[in-house]
Amino acid sequence: MSKLIDAIRDRRSDRHFANKPLEADVVEALLDAFRWAPSSNNRQPWRVLIASSTQAQGIFDDALSAGNKQWALVAPLKMVIIGVPEEQPEKNGLQNFMLDMGFAMENMMVQGYAMGLTMHAMAGFDYDKICKGFALPASAKPVALMAAGYRGRVEDLIEEVRAKDVKVRTRKAIAEFTYRDAYGAAFK
Ligand SMILES: Cc1cc2nc3c(=O)[nH]c(=O)nc-3n(C[C@H](O)[C@H](O)[C@H](O)COP(=O)(O)O)c2cc1C
């Protein structure tokens, strides 16, 4: 069995999908990983809206940013990730529900990667189109869209999108964001 850190490190936000629907048990596995995320006081202030019908997919597609329309339209699984802030009160002036949402989304993305899927979160969408199109109640805030599907071939992407997909993934070095004893003090 590969180590958990391998899946965490190798997961990547690719933009290519195989032309193959996801089986119900695969979708269920994604949702299962999502729901086992930690949340403050275990409040689980989340909802997931899966766009399946032609009409729902049309709303989803129409709300995508121009850049995301270049690759996400063909994703076999389209999900609206929704938070309900009133179920997770603010703390220190911070929107705590967003933390819970992030944990759940990462769980889902790592699980999907480990199952051979492309999983791609998107903040690039028209918020009002999602709210109005899906008639969300005022309490429900769409925090991200998620495109998912079996991995396709990077060679099949249009040049502009392919360039983004083959870009080397980087992260800050640990020493760049870790301090010891005082803010800004070197960790080593
Ligand atoms: C909340 C969130 C929103 C994102 N929105 C978009 C998006 O709208 N379009 C896009 O192409 N990528 C989007 N991404 C993907 C990020 O660009 C990507 O995670 C980042 O570049 C790191 O690459 P990696 O996921 O392959 O490690 C988003 C990621 C997150 C977590």
- On the 0 to 100 scale, the average pLDDT is 97
CATH class: Alpha Beta
Number of helices: 8
Could you estimate the helical fraction of the residues in percent?
Answer: 25-40%
**What is the molecular shape?**
globular
Report low-confidence residues grouped into runs of 5 or more: none
Main sheet attributes: strand count, strand direction, barrel closure:
4 strands, antiparallel
List the helices and strands in order: HHEHHEHEHEHH
Total beta strands: 4
Provide the structure class: alpha+beta
Domain unit count:
1
Distance between the termini: 33 Å
CATH fourth-tier homologous superfamily: NADH Oxidase
Strand order of the largest sheet: 1-2-4-3
Strand content: 5-15%
Might you state the CATH topology name? NADH Oxidase
Attached small molecules: flavin mononucleotide
Rg measurement, Å: 18 Å
Structure description:
The structure is a single chain. The chain has a single domain (4-156), classed as 3-Layer(aba) Sandwich (NADH Oxidase), CATH 3.40.109. The mean pLDDT is 97. The longest helix is centred in the middle third of the chain and has 18 residues, at 97-114. It has helices spanning 4-10, 24-35, 54-63, 66-69, 97-114, 127-133, 159-165, 174-177, and strands spanning 46-50, 77-83, 117-122, 141-150. The protein has a four-stranded antiparallel beta sheet, with helices on both faces. Helix 2 runs antiparallel to helix 5 (97-114) and helix 3 (54-63) runs antiparallel to helix 6. With 188 residues, it is an alpha+beta fold. Bound molecules: flavin mononucleotide (FMN). Flavin mononucleotide binds next to strand 3.
